Amino acid sequence: MKNIHFKIYTAITELPIEWDNVSVANHFLQTPYLSVLEKSASVNMQCFFIGIFQNNELIGTSLAQYIDLNKLESFGERDTCFKTLFRNFMLKNFASHVVFMGNNMITGQNSYTFSKDIGFKNISETMMQCSQALIQYFKKKKIKIHLVSFKDFYAVCATKLQQFEFKNLYEFHTQPNMIFNLQPDWKSKDDYVASFTKKYRDQYKRARKKSSAITLKELSLTEVVVLENTLYSLYYYVAKNAPFNTFFLSKNHFSTFKKQCGNRFRVFGYFLHDKLIGFHTLLLNGKVLETYFLGYDEQHQKENMLYLNMLYNMTEFGIENQFEKIIFGRTALEIKSSIGAKPVYMSGFLFHTNPIINRFIGNIFPKLEPETSWNKRNPFK
Known about the structure:
By secondary structure, the chain is α+β, with helices and mostly antiparallel strands. Helix content is about 40%, strand content about 25%. Strands 1, 2, 3, 4, 5, 6, 7 and 15 form an 8-stranded mixed sheet that branches.
């Protein structure tokens, strides 16, 4: 295709009026969600909205995020080994200014959407040109971008992109995305549980019995606003104890999300004696259910098998509301496989703006990734 060009926007109010029509295939590139990022981005994040045009017609939309790791108080405090200390040193000194072409806050192929097929050659060229434009944008602000990462592509797309402008970029694979393809004949939780082997049916019964004193309730916008501080503290505990973070949500993130997206964003609270001890959130993206951030009180989590019960509740919501699949993301791989999710490996691509470091990025990058070992489970007959 000819006459493809792009424009980078820094505010939702600047976007073309046809933006949401072009982004109709992905809620995460529509203005309600992008407004959430604009109004409640992490303190170390700035978002850019990219319109892709053919002549004067908007045919594609994309998202980029700048992350300043110098503003992050912690990369994650669960692990304190030498490798973690080395990773933190390297990130602070050689990779603290990062541009993500895509969305670093969610897992999945959400980098771009198009209203017509422009081919992977055009896509790769446009994405590379956008990254260079952002590098120059920050250079004018006296900020040197260290790393550029093109985030989350399924295998077919990754292979296609590598045939063109991505061919000289370093391809990396982090932890797999845990995806649960729901069976069409499951109409209720009873159908789901009946498909388990005895071992996992017993696990389900044990988890449900452990949480019998807990009340699950979907929270309205008013309730999310009232409980905002508690929601954030529960989220922050889990996030801070993760093996690795590049951002922390802002304190008004959940209420902003609920205000902007309404029933596309669902918040479920777990109450013990009227006290909020945990929550999980879901994003409704067409026929795909996306799990989002959650939080819990560690003491009650262990005693009530809270996290496992959250996974069961998310799955049952997906079945009862006839979603085709659930995106569970990259953490807690083994326990997610125990409820039926399967690993799907995705590719990312990156380059370092320092040519010497970039030459050895294939040796350096694997040392920055947290090690993960896990056993794949199959709960079904």
